[in-house]
Amino acid sequence: MNQSTSKQVKTEPAEPELQGESSSSQNVTRSSVAQPSHEPSATTPVQPSQPSVSTEDDIPPDENPLLIDPYVPFTCSICQQMEKCIYSELKTIDGYYPFPVYFMRDPFTPRPRIKGRKPLLSDFLVLGGPCSLCSSPVCLDKSCSVYFGNLFCAMCIARERKRFPEKVIQTVLKAQSNRVKGEEPEETN
């Protein structure tokens, strides 16, 4: 029956409703009819030898979406602060960060118990983000990074002094000197 149908489509002129359309639509109509073939075609689905039933045990742990940990390790490239947090864009109803940041729920304040309340920026603790020049992760401490249109690490600011205003450079240098003064010297044995 398929052979007679395909022959009928090939030999008969197009139906009246198709005559006004372009020839490409007629070709699509003709080619959409299955033609018998003894050779397997590329579009013929291959039947698996066994039915594929996957369970949670079959999926490797790093590919199982139920076991993926949303937290990533964050280490500041300058002060070496380490923390597990989320790396993503942070957008809430009261504001957003214009670049992806490392953040977590603020562990120092309890979550509000108001049903239906959407989270605010004040509910999160932002740890840092990637430097716009070198892409290394830096924390938001004044001695490690400065936001000047984008986030820049202190190393890039020192290296690219001519690209920044003197006030930005002075802010970083002052914060770094205060940090060095606040640290106790290491004892050597």
TrEMBL record:
Biased composition (Polar residues): 33-54
Matches recorded under InterPro entries: CDPF1, CDPF1_dom
Region annotation (Disordered) ranges: 1-64
Endpoints of the signal sequence: none
Pfam families: C6_DPF
Cysteine-rich DPF motif domain segment(s): 74-171
Domain of life: Eukaryota
Low complexity biased stretches: 22-32
Entry similarity comment: Belongs to the CDPF1 family.
Stated name of the protein: Cysteine-rich DPF motif domain-containing protein 1
Organism: Mesorhabditis belari
